[in-house]
Write a structure and sequence with these properties.
10 strands; 2 domains; disordered C terminus; 347 residues; elongated; alpha+beta
């Protein structure tokens, strides 16, 4: 019964809500469980992300300390986990499609072990792994054309993540997908990684975000690579004045619908309609022409080429360079190119 309660109950989502005294007792028991499983729990002020405890990154954590927190820090009922030996792969990306791609890149790279995923504010997510040699934070940050900042951070030595509690922005409890979190898995069962792995993953995540037309920025919020060629396709996309949230949502929905259509189900007609609708947004300044062309082509190919289906942002050059490209591919390219020319002439 005890093991099941750790796995299945969600004390911060209990209905009716637990009394403060009962919640404090439950949280203390859960912190003891974190410790026995090999994690380093710390108290976090309820509804916040950062610890208020002095020297929280360096203090010894044992059963005595955990018991004392229940009386000394009654308002700090969220629980964090120090990331010195449990690095948190934090995909702090607000675009679901890109976040999914970055997560998949991590899953493709990660060694064997149990994968867990914590959610606070979707589509952001955090995946905890483990290391034997601590390392400092590794991160990369990009800005989208709508000025939204997206980050991928590997939280390391000297940092922590909230494992359970109430999110400070959503005011809703954090949760673990499939209702399986750290309390169900011993630390030693998590995939083992090192700093080199973290840096390779961050580099891969950077490629994915760059291919989305985002610009890498530094901590000051400025373009991190201002010396790059101004004619770079990615920079054209990133600095395009026409990339509204409405336009990007329409592009995503049209491409998803097109990619899901099975063979011989009228995809060419659907492509005609999608291209016409989207390039009206291009003509009105709501989308970037190059991005629409590439994303439509990749979506139209999705059910024809398994390689393309795994890379939704694939460039059209892959198909155009094949000497034996099918007539359907030629039709797709011709339709999109024709509509581009017609709409640009009439805009």
């Amino acid at each position: 019964m005890v093991a099941a309660s750790f796995k299945d109950d969600l004390p911060f989502a209990a209905s009716p809500p637990l009394t403060h005294g009962r919640l404090r007792t439950v949280v203390t028991a859960r912190r003891v469980r974190y410790l026995t499983l090999g994690y380093q729990p710390i108290p976090i002020l309820s509804g916040r992300k950062r610890p208020a405890l002095d020297n929280w990154a360096g203090i010894p954590i044992d059963l005595g300390a955990i018991s004392a927190w229940a009386d000394d820090r009654p308002g700090e009922l969220s629980t964090g986990v120090r990331t010195k030996y449990t690095p948190g792969f934090d995909i702090d990306i607000r675009d679901r499609d890109v976040a999914d791609q970055v997560e998949q890149a991590l899953l493709n790279m990660v060694p064997s072990g149990t994968i867990l995923k914590r959610i606070g504010m979707p589509p952001k997510r955090l995946i905890p792994l483990r290391c034997e040699t601590p390392f400092k934070k590794v991160s990369v940050m990009f800005k989208a054309p709508d000025d939204t900042v997206h980050k991928v951070e590997i939280l390391g030595d000297g940092q922590q993540f909230v494992a359970e509690g109430v999110h400070e922005d959503t005011h809703q409890p954090y949760y673990w997908t499939d209702n399986v979190g750290l309390l169900s898995v011993a630390h030693e069962a998590l995939p083992l990684v090192d700093e080199s792995f973290a840096r390779r993953f961050v580099a891969e995540a950077g490629k994915i975000m760059r291919s989305a037309g985002w610009v890498e920025i530094g901590g000051n919020g400025k373009d991190k690579n201002p010396g790059k060629t101004k004619n770079s396709p990615n920079r054209q996309k990133s600095h395009s004045s026409g990339s509204s949230i409405y336009g990007r949502t329409a592009l995503r929905d049209e491409c998803a619908k097109l990619a899901a259509m099975p063979k011989d189900s009228g995809r060419n007609n659907a492509l005609n309609t999608a291209a016409f609708n989207l390039f009206q947004l291009v003509a009105g300044g709501g989308l970037d022409e190059n991005e629409v062309h590439d994303r439509l082509f990749a979506a139209a190919e999705a059910n024809s080429s398994p390689r393309t289906a795994r890379h939704p942002c694939a460039r059209r050059s892959r198909a155009e360079k094949k000497p034996g490209a099918r007539s359907r591919d030629k039709h797709q390219t011709a339709v999109i190119s024709m509509l581009v020319r017609l709409l640009m002439m009439t805009s």
